[in-house]
């Protein structure tokens, strides 16, 4: 049994606490033993006085010495209310240093006298007064040495400690067996489940089923079960995301080639003689260019890499106008109104294409939320700047987000509230904003609508790719 195990430490603590309890009991026990020892000397002395009083007035010296030796005392005095008679006597080895009247000693005083006797290594002569047979009209007074008393007390204390140690060891063994059966066996079962689960965490058959009888262990098993289910679900979700990433990468690769061809044909539309086609051609070329760029960044995302932003100065109002124009084309009915509150002179330093993607995701979510209600509503995009940052606000008058959506808002495949949505839009948007060293926050979401705020610092710190993704 090792001390670095629960059973070993439990056994050691049991022995320690039992021994401490026995030590606390030892002092009253020694005090009681000391009283019994003194009363036994008084009883022997009283018997010796009876023998002396029953004899003639003269008593042989050798017989008197034998009576005193059997009683273990030096002198015996018989005390009555009107008489104090020296019955037996011998030569004292020294002066009397202390007198103890057993009729007056309380518990505390008795314990103090017992400790004093143990601590005093000298062989002193003491006087003891008491009535061993509770005869109120007669007292026995004796003188005796303390060496024999101290020796007897030490012997009694050692025997008591040895007996206590034996009981402590026996108690520790019994308690250890009980703990082994009641606590350690269920704990070892939980450990076996954890080891088995660690070998194949994606297999739900290895998830523990709580069945412990102890409430605490059952709570631990229940918590372990919930954690294992969460981990298993997350592993399955990550596996599906990896498979989806591979599929998207393949599609994006082929789609990029198709869009590149379409981009070549769209370039020729600028030479068209039709004024309407000529005006629409640049917008078509820009849209196809963004699609090609999106395919390329999707391929990079499939490699767990989001390209670092390419910073440039541009008019934020013009960029937002492009976003609104693109979203206006996707309106199902004229029930969503777009409002822009951005100074025309406001310029921002960021990656134009990445910020376009961020604003498209936020604006599209707001538009779809309003369309889902079937009621008219507005989407407002505002912006401003301070000495330390640029901020962009995107708000709507939609129905707001459910609590579950708020909890998993920026987690992939978890934050979508629209049927058929993937929940990737806000995840990607938050990732892109973090790449600029900024933050995308949900300011409010209630029955009056939702509001998101983008913060981009003027002193832009471009985060490393892995750090930006890990921040999600």
TrEMBL record:
Residues 250-460 form the Histidine kinase domain. Gene3D superfamilies: 1.10.287.130, Histidine kinase-like ATPase, C-terminal domain. Its EC number is 2.7.13.3. Pfam families: HATPase_c (PF02518), HisKA (PF00512). The keyword Nucleotide-binding applies. It comes from the Bacteria. InterPro entries: HATPase_C_sf (IPR036890), HATPase_dom (IPR003594), His_kinase_dom (IPR005467), HisK_dim/P_dom (IPR003661), HisK_dim/P_sf (IPR036097), Sig_transdc_His_kin-like_C (IPR004358). GO terms for molecular function: ATP binding; phosphorelay sensor kinase activity. Keywords: ATP-binding, Kinase, Membrane, Nucleotide-binding, Phosphoprotein, Transferase, Transmembrane, Transmembrane helix, Two-component regulatory system. The chain crosses the membrane at residues 6-31, 160-179. It catalyses: ATP + protein L-histidine = ADP + protein N-phospho-L-histidine. It is an enzyme of class 2 (transferase). This is histidine kinase.
